[in-house]
Amino acid sequence: MATSKSSKALTGRAMQAAVLRFIAREEPLVATLGAFPQLDRNKLQRALEKAAGLLEGKGGEEVEAAPVYIRLRLYSDGAARGNPGPAGAGAVLVEPSGQVVDRLGKFLGHQTNNYAEYQGLLLGLKRARELGVREVEVFADSELMIRQLGGRYQVKSPSLRPLYEEALKVLNEFERVKLVHVPREMNRAADEMSNKAIEERM
């Protein structure tokens, strides 16, 4: 059976979308991130995924609607090797059912552990906001950060103060927030992302 030009075009766009998704998920993207320092790996991945979706949409194929998340759990962490030293922020967003929605990591350069902890929180909160989440439960193994945000500890560090204020501002954009301090062993997924960010310079 002969294949029409429109059918060939559909196949071409589907192939291009698949290639973009493969690059987003499997390639290290080091050269691209080096050429565009304003991007991080997470933003670049999302841009590639969005471009893939647009290609599919232009082909007349049904594009799956983005899921709507009312409430998510956010596991956040930060790591600094040497404290201060090479640092990374990590965050994992999880549905109440336990299904992972997103894993995030960001290399921070030479920073302290507490700085990295706040950056991990902000990384996850901003992603949750992008997803339209209205209620967020924050789980972190930094007792200092959780108690500072809960008003139990003062923020005495000049380097942490701006991050603390930014975190409060973003938290106030959600309808409901719960802050929970958890043991390190309950925060392994976010810890893995923060260390991966250091190792891979995400």
Short description:
The chain is α/β, with parallel strands linked by helices and 202 residues long. It has seven helices and five strands. The protein is globular and about 60 Å long.
- At CATH level 3, the topology of the largest domain is Nucleotidyltransferase, domain 5
CATH superfamily membership of the largest domain: Ribonuclease H-like superfamily/Ribonuclease H
DSSP, total strands: 5
Strand content: 15-25%
Helix content: 40-55%
| Cα radius of gyration in angstroms | 19 Å
- General form: globular
3D structure, described in words:
The chain has two domains: 5-58; 71-200, Ribonuclease H-like superfamily/Ribonuclease H (Nucleotidyltransferase, domain 5). A five-stranded mixed sheet has the order 3-2-1-4-5. Helix 1 (5-26) packs antiparallel against helix 3. Mean pLDDT is 87; it is low at 1-10 and 59-63. It has helices at 5-26, 30-35, 41-58, 113-130, 143-149, 161-171, 188-200, and strands spanning 71-80, 85-94, 100-111, 135-140, 176-181. It is an alpha/beta fold and 202 residues long. Strand 1 and strand 2 form a beta hairpin. The protein has seven helices and five strands.
